[in-house]
Specification:
mainly alpha
Length: 119
């Protein structure tokens, strides 16, 4: 089963570029928030907003690292091969998650058993 590497690379580049723009916007907005030395209990919403921004930045930064690692694997010729066991990653997994670097069998348990919170 040959992978359509061009398709995955295109999707990954689009995601990388989007994440870069989003991180840039987060960094810009972080500069407009009052610095920590001026925050008091009266500014609780500002404190909470800074905390949320920091968490979002962390999530997007980690995602960008994964996307860049997948793009590097494409450049290295190892894309689609599990970094843990060396087996081919199922095409359906890559279709769902182009930045996947492991097969389902080697997926960390915390990711394997992930259940989204109920809304």
């Amino acid at each position: 089963m040959a992978l359509d590497i061009k398709k995955y690379k295109k999707r990954l580049i689009e995601e990388r570029d989007r994440l870069g723009r989003e991180l840039g916007l987060i960094m810009e907005s972080a500069g407009t928030v009052t610095d920590d030395s001026q925050l008091t209990a009266a500014n609780a919403p500002v404190i909470e907003m800074k905390d949320v921004e920091a968490r979002i930045k962390d999530i997007k930064s980690r995602r960008l690292e994964r996307v860049n690692a997948a793009l590097q694997a494409i450049d290295d010729g190892t894309y689609g091969v599990c970094i843990k066991c060396g087996k081919q990653i199922d095409k359906r997994r890559l279709d769902a998650e182009p930045a996947a670097l492991t097969c389902l069998e080697c997926l960390p348990e915390d990711e394997r058993d992930f259940q989204p919170p109920e809304m």
